[in-house]
Amino acid sequence: MADPSQQGWTMFEWAMTTLGPLGAILWGYAVLKMKEKWQADDAKLEKKMKKDSETCKVETLDLVKSIITNTAGRLDKKFDANKSEITLELENHNKQIQENEKRDANHETENRADFKELHKRINDANERSDSKFEKLMDKMTKSSETVILSLSDIKADVAGLKGRVEK
Which of 37, 57, 121, 152 is the residue whose CA sits 20 to 30 A from 20? Predict the structure, then answer.
């Protein structure tokens, strides 16, 4: 028999014509199985996306902590105070993001229709996070520049004193 789509038949019509009522039952069963498979695939994809998002956030936080730790060894007490403040703000912000994600995840399981709205809220939170991170990095850069300038002034003073001592 020719391909049903070439004859303008739907799969249901083909099943009914070829196998009768048994074909309709088999067709219905196949549709249900496909729906279950799609739902399982959607759940796996959502789980993978959530895991990838969490991994990315953890890696970003680790990178920021590493940068702060490496820089802190070379700066004075003023910068250390700013570093602690930045770290605390980043940790608080990360906790807030995690709480929002938990709340959003619970909401997604309750109502699938709101998934798009929740996705938009997460993107907005990430954009705000990026903005805050950039502000904090600017603040850290300005503090380190101030300390570096102070160190340069101290070096100049020491060089001046050294010149006087040599005279």
Answer: 37
Return the number of other C-beta atoms located less than 10 Å from residue 167's C-beta: 4
Neighbours of 75 (CB within 10 A): 19
CB 12 within 8 A of CB 24: yes
Q: How far apart are CA 75 and CA 80, in angstroms?
A: 7
Is the pLDDT confidence value at 4 over 60?
Answer: no
Mind giving me the DSSP string for 138-158?
HHHHHHHHHHHHHHHHHHHHH
| CA separation for the pair 15, 19 (Å, rounded) | 6
How is residue 60 written in tokens? 């970003």
Name the pLDDT band for 94 (thresholds 50, 70, 90). confident
The C-alpha atoms of residue 66 and residue 54 are separated, in whole angstroms, by: 18
pLDDT tens-digit readout, 50-61: 888 888 777 777
